[in-house]
């Protein structure tokens, strides 16, 4: 009987386990997770902080017997070491598990900033349910909260903190907010929006130390000292793959995979935030840590685990960088190579009065990347053009003249709509 071992009980691990069970009713499936709670979604934690859901609302599957009903064995432990040749995994509880196929779906862990005082009480990441409990106890109405980091995850946390009625300060090392998703103009507009909502924002600034006390005293690189009842560290995450050292599994930034999500070792696969998969837009391998990518990678990996050395059953069509962010009510997006490519063309349109910004990046007549602020009507079209690698033909020049014509360009290029007039009618509906 084939034993499928899955390391990581987040969305990727759970979807892989369910896919395996659907197609292989008699196989043995073991799902290893290192937290005491039932498998849950980290993306639901902000809603828990806002009070919109209780802890059970974060659980990926609502039935308490879901996994036992499917014959999926849950093990509470963390992988310490993988022996690819022996097909065994050593866990931190001393247990050693053998496998026929292995899926590495261990996700990411918060990056720990090397700051004096980072281990002080009342300093927390926001990554686990345990973290969320600690934050909710301290982030009461009127509490002074300082958040380190204004990247994608940081802005999501900020939304939840604002909903709790705290006095919020945000410190970002980059010269703008969301620097890995937005250019200077867009990132600056998001900062201005946050400040208009009462959030104190320090960009181009580092936290130099955190001094214990009640309140904490946070020293910034700009010379300021900020008093805080709670400090949240949201300075990024990194793949949780340290246990693969000397395993024989090849890792770069993440676990390197092919189009079938298989690693360099036959029978060992990876999916989700720890997997480095091929991005068809940029033409290179990337980690795209968003749940839709994790789900698709898990499905493809599981189908190929079932092949067990035979002909692969599925291939990943590609991974694109997709981010849609709600920052205190301001919607911003980033798709593909938003910074542009060598030899490409680009166009930007900014309406500061309306809080709207649009940036399009082209390679030849293909839209390879874009980002926007406050331009919600084009989100689906931008994603479709970037992911679909759609040749725009003469519409590329039309967009260089007027980037707001994305909808007619999309309709004409993808659906064969009849030129400007028909497309403009469609836009007005």
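^ structure tokens above, recovered residues below v
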């Amino acid at each position: 009987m084939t034993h499928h071992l899955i390391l990581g009980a987040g969305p990727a691990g759970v979807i892989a386990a369910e896919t395996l069970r659907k197609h292989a009713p008699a196989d043995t499936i073991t799902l290893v997770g290192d937290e005491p709670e039932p498998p849950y979604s980290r993306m639901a934690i902000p809603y828990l902080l806002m009070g919109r859901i209780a802890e059970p609302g974060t659980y990926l599957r609502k039935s308490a017997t879901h996994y036992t009903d499917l014959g999926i064995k849950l093990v509470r432990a963390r992988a310490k070491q993988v022996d690819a040749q022996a097909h065994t995994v050593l866990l931190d509880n001393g247990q050693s598990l053998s496998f026929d196929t292995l899926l590495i779906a261990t996700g990411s862990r918060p990056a720990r900033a090397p700051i004096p005082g980072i281990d002080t009480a009342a300093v927390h990441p926001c990554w686990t349910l345990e973290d969320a409990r600690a934050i909710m106890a301290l982030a009461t109405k009127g509490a002074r909260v300082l958040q380190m980091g204004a990247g994608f995850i940081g802005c999501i946390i900020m939304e939840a903190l604002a909903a709790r009625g705290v006095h919020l300060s945000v410190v970002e090392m980059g010269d703008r907010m969301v620097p890995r998703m937005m250019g200077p103009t867009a990132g600056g507009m998001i900062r201005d929006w946050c400040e208009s909502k009462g959030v104190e924002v320090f960009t181009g600034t580092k936290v130099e130390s955190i001094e214990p006390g009640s309140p904490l005293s946070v020293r910034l690189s700009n010379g300021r000292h900020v008093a805080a009842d709670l400090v949240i560290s949201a300075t990024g995450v990194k793949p949780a793959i340290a246990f693969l050292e000397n395993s024989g599994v090849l890792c770069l930034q993440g676990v390197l995979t092919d189009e079938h999500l298989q690693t360099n070792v036959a029978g060992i696969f990876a999916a989700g935030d720890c997997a480095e998969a091929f991005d068809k837009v940029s033409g290179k391998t990337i980690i795209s840590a968003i749940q839709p990518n994790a789900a698709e990678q898990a499905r493809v990996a599981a189908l190929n685990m079932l092949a067990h050395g035979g002909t692969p059953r599925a291939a990943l069509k590609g991974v694109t960088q997709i981010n849609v962010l709600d920052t205190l009510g301001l919607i911003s997006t980033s798709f593909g190579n938003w910074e542009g490519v060598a030899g490409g063309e680009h166009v930007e349109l900014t309406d500061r009065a309306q809080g709207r910004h649009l940036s399009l990046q082209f390679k030849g007549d293909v839209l390879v990347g874009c980002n926007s602020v406050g331009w919600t009507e084009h989100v689906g079209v931008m994603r479709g053009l970037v992911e679909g690698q759609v040749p725009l033909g003469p519409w590329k020049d039309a967009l260089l003249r007027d980037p707001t014509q994305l909808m007619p360009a999309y309709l004409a290029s993808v659906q064969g709509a009849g030129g400007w007039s028909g497309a403009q009618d469609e836009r007005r509906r």
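The chain has eleven helices and 26 strands.
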